[in-house]
From TrEMBL:
GO molecular function, one term: hydrolase activity
Pfam families per the UniProt record, alphabetical: FrsA-like (PF06500)
Keyword match Hydrolase: yes
The UniProt record lists the keyword Transport: no
Protein name: Alpha/beta fold hydrolase
InterPro entries noted in UniProt: AB_hydrolase_fold (IPR029058), FrsA-like (IPR010520), FrsA_esterase (IPR050261)
Species, as recorded: Pelagibacterium nitratireducens
High-level lineage: Bacteria, Pseudomonadati, Pseudomonadota, Alphaproteobacteria, Hyphomicrobiales
Keywords noted in UniProt: Hydrolase
Amino acid sequence: MEEKLINQVSDRKEGHYKPYGWHHWPDYPWMSYQFRRALGETQEGGGAISEVFQVGERIDPSDSESWCREWRAIGDRNRLRGDQEEAAGHIVTARNCWLRAVDYYREAEFWLEGNDPRRLEIFDQLEYCSKKWGSYFNPPMESVEVPYLDGKTLYAYFLRSPNSTEERQPVLMCFGGLDSFKDEMWFMVAHGAIQRGMSVLMVDGPGQGGTIRRHKLTNRHDYEVPVGKCIDYLETRDDVDASRIAMSGSSLGGYYAARAASFEHRLAAAVSHGAIWSVNDLWGDADDSHGLAGHITWVFGADNMAEALKKGEAFKLEGVIDKIACPYLIVHGGYDVLGVDQAQKVYDYAKANGVDVTLRLVGEEETGAEHCQHDNPTLGQELVNDWLAEKLGIDQSKLKPA
């Protein structure tokens, strides 16, 4: 099995640059990975570089409480400033502050236990900032609850592109993965879709965001079910071209996207923004000491990693993705700290079974070689959305200027 870069011990103890980006605390690779994620998303509006390094200086990486405290502090600072600037009529500044706060709050709650009441408290503040930012979008962002199962809903945001002249726009449905959710999708794939004339539906599927935090809905291997419910919703809208609905899934969402495209043939295109052949192969013999064990067990509705691995047996693509009928893109970091071999397996299997599949491995020199291009998310946005624009028939030369 491929040795994962996240597990490799560095011979340097100070922060330094690696092929996958800035490595802040070499002795704490999982903390460094999350710090790298926050640092990268500053370039998509999800923070300010100086604030991120300010937090990094104040955090004790051996203490997850210090992580929550320091990120929450700058989240609060930007949320309050956003409210003050709105009251003063400084709407552009207010929107910038709220958008930074969204990503800071996402970081703040990251290492908390799933049942820690602060998770929902911080998430509520995060959504407040997302909705305030989106209320000044043109047209305003819509907060949506997509009908799901047993009277429950999937929390989502719908944003229409101001750059397109089309009355019925193509739509990209954006799903996160194990620990990413709808609000982070703006920094990972949604911004680039909006720029290219696509509407976006950013969704908290089962196991994600508000859907797990409020409805306690854990994830499922047959993700074509929630994806199908989202398509049902989009088909009711008169501003959507239902023949041009695409899906992107990031990280574990890369599995969700491939699985959904295999059985939900209303999709016009699908993207694995980070590919996963088999969840259990990805985790190997991980036990409760794994760096993401808390997230994995919470999202999978398990009491321990042994139970999560049992449920994870169904999360595999062999015998599944030969059924994909739409164009399918894999964008994967060439130095993804969680591994690269799974992306190659997905591509090889899909190609051998006649799928219209494209693999784009992102190399060290161009940056963006980290998992989901966390070190350079703008590049990831460009690779995903230029491909989608081509597949959905969008002429970018005819888009209205931003």
